[in-house]
Amino acid sequence: MSTITDNDLKELKDLINHRLDRLENKMDSLESNYNSLDKTVSNINTKLETIKPIFDKIPELSEKIGEYKNWKQISVILITGFLTSLFWIFRNNP
After folding, report:
1. CB–CB of 74/65 below 8 Å?
2. Would you say 82 and 76 are in contact if contact means Cβ atoms under 8 Å apart?
């Protein structure tokens, strides 16, 4: 009877150890995934901080456009910008 109990206990210990090893492996993989996500979030935050000054200038630009009460002036500016962008596109293409 003692050998059966010892064998059963040994099997239980092995089973518990095996399960604990699997849990440790899963925890390690979760930690590595967490670290990679943390790096990704920090990269996104860095990019957002870089772009933030550009977004902060949008209200200033809209105020400047709002100051133009003469629509002819606005249309001349838009046409000039459009023609300039076309010039730059065709200038860069041989």
Report:
1. yes
2. no
CB environment 29-62: b (16+ within 10 A), e (fewer) = eeeeeeeeeeeeeeeeeeeeeeeeeeeeeeeeee
Residue type, 2: S
Contact predicate 82/88, CB 8 Å: no
Distance from C-alpha of 85 to C-alpha of 1, rounded to nearest angstrom: 91
Total-model pTM: 0.47
Give the residue with greater pLDDT, 73 vs 1: 73
Q: Write down the domain spans for the chain.
A: 2-92
Query: ∠ at Cα 84 (48, 62), nearest 5°?
Result: 45
Which tokens in the block code for residue 2? Answer: 């003692």
User: In the structure encoding, which two tokens stand for residue 71, read together?
Assistant: 């629509």
pLDDT of residue 21: 94
In the block, tokens 């838009």 appear at 78
Q: What are the E-state strand segments in the chain?
A: none
